[in-house]
């Protein structure tokens, strides 16, 4: 066999019955029925018609037996054939169609055999038998094995009946047998080949179906794999995007941290240079004038030198205090300590402090305070020390940078916030400098103002304190007209009974 068809050889069918040994047989019978039952129906109609038309031969050839023959044709065989034809329209036909055909085959054959033995010398009827064989093997779609059994059974029946009939010559029987056996052999051969061919087709059809299923399975697997991979790829892509975005953010943070570090480094160096200069100035003043004390010519001069020493000492103390505060903030050890106290007593304390301030006294500034609540209503809870320090810083600035006029400070109090203001009629700050006023390490040098004793740290420290306490500060100022610094602070109120 051609190797291309080698696999068909392994179809594994029974050589005699042609049956498949397994479930394929059931499937094949379904398949065979599907492919054959239309042809079966038509063949039954045709066979029935032929069987009827051959009645005409009875009329021509066997007038004396015509009635019996017609009875066989029209009352026995034809009803059987037509019944099978009509049964072919019901659903259950599929389950017994081969058996029905086998049965009708035998009925039709018996009809002809009857005619042959009644008219043994009339070969017309023997030819009829050949037609039966022919129809059985190749026409009505009876399977090979059943067609063969039916064929040979008909031959045997004919022989049994014919041999028992006294009026039939042996040679006549033998002649018929020659044809009948020949016809059956040829028919079997044809039917065998036809059925093997059908089964081979079916077998290939099964294999193709299986291959198709395999391909579909592979395809669906492939699709799933592609889908999975695509998902994975998209995920990786997104991760990569996120990673890139994250790195960009980190890079930007690093750059800005570096810039900040550089800036802070610069500011720190500048600050240190300033500080050493600032510290040296009052120190020189103190040491210089202390040395001069001995050489003072009169009491007035002595007092003047002592004043200078005290002033420089104060300034140095302020400076050192600022530096200490700043280092505490830097080190993160500065803590807010809340206590409850009467705000009006604090403003009074500060007022008294500044009423004697040398700036106020020397420049005859009018200092006023404006309490926003009665003494009783001015109890609050916050960090008193820090608040005092903030107020001192701001009022100190106000009196420092005001040559003439007034400095007023006061507050308003609502349920949640304390709002303080410090207003002066001083030199004012231009807009450009207002922006940087609160920056740490940033000493604002105003070109248009005379240099005052200051550290350049007061506002930065003030703002940091306020931030730690949850507050905020802002400034409104106009050059040569004055400034108003105002800050808000969230406060709580104590239960008045608990206050000692
Ligand atoms: P300093 O110790 O130098 O006063 P601050 O941080 O307290 O440092 O203030 C920074 C700068 O802001 C001051 O040098 C001054 O030029 C300006 N400034 C602060 N307060 C006032 C004010 N009330 N009027 C005008 N200028 C002010």
Structure notes:
It contains 14 helices and 7 strands. It has a 5-stranded mixed beta sheet with strand order 2-4-5-7-6, with helices on one face. A two-stranded antiparallel sheet has the order 1-3. With 500 residues, it is an alpha+beta fold. α5 runs parallel beside α7, α6 runs parallel beside α8 and α12 runs antiparallel to α14. It binds adenosine-5'-diphosphate (ADP). The site of adenosine-5'-diphosphate (ADP) has 20 residues, from α12 and α14.
Poorly predicted spans: none
Judged by helices, strands and strand pairing, the structural class is alpha+beta
Largest sheet: 5 strands, mixed
Helix tally equals 14
Return the average pLDDT rounded to an integer. 89
Q: How many β-strands, per DSSP?
A: 7
Strand content: 5-15%
Give the ordered list of helices and strands. Answer: HHHHHHHHHEHHEEHEEHHEE
Radius of gyration: 63 Å
User: Share of helix among residues?
Assistant: 55-70%
Question: Which short descriptors sum up this protein?
Answer:
500 residues, binds adenosine-5'-diphosphate, two-stranded antiparallel ribbon, five-stranded mixed beta sheet, alpha+beta, single chain, rod-shaped
